Amino acid sequence: MEKERAAERRAVLLSHELNGMSEKEFEEAGKTEQTNLLKEMYHLLRQNKKWWMAPILFILFLFGLLILLGGSAAAPFIYSLF
């Protein structure tokens, strides 16, 4: 029964065009290489000319790094910085 439902859902999804794409184009898009997060962020900044976001993202990255290192053996060294 579940296999039939899954087949029906797939048929419905494939019968509709997604964002103006045909089924073949959709499948080809799924086969392309996925980019990583850093590449995606770089392309966002570059294409949309949002360079003012770079320092904000850098500071957020540093805070995330501090949070990750705060629970490790490096914690005493981090706390001495403040």
Show the helix and strand layout.
Blueprint: H1 2-15, H2 23-31, H3 37-47, H4 53-70, H5 75-79
List the defining traits of the structure above.
82 residues; mainly alpha; elongated; 0% strand; 5 helices
Description:
This protein is mainly alpha-helical and 82 residues long. It has helices at 2-15, 23-31, 37-47, 53-70, 75-79. The N and C termini lie far apart (61 Å). The mean pLDDT is 78.
In short:
With 82 residues, this protein is mainly alpha-helical. Helix content is 70%, strand content 0%.
Class by SSE composition: mainly alpha
Q: Largest sheet, described in full?
A: none
Stretches where pLDDT is under 50 for at least 5 consecutive residues are none
Percent range of helical residues: 55-70%
What's the total helix number? 5
Task: Report strand %.
Answer: under 5%
Task: Please write the string of helix (H) and strand (E) elements.
Answer: HHHHH
Mean pLDDT: 78
**What is the distance, rounded to the nearest whole angstrom, between the alpha carbons of the first and last residues?**
61 Å
Number of DSSP E strands = 0
Supply Rg: 22 Å
Principal-axis shape: elongated
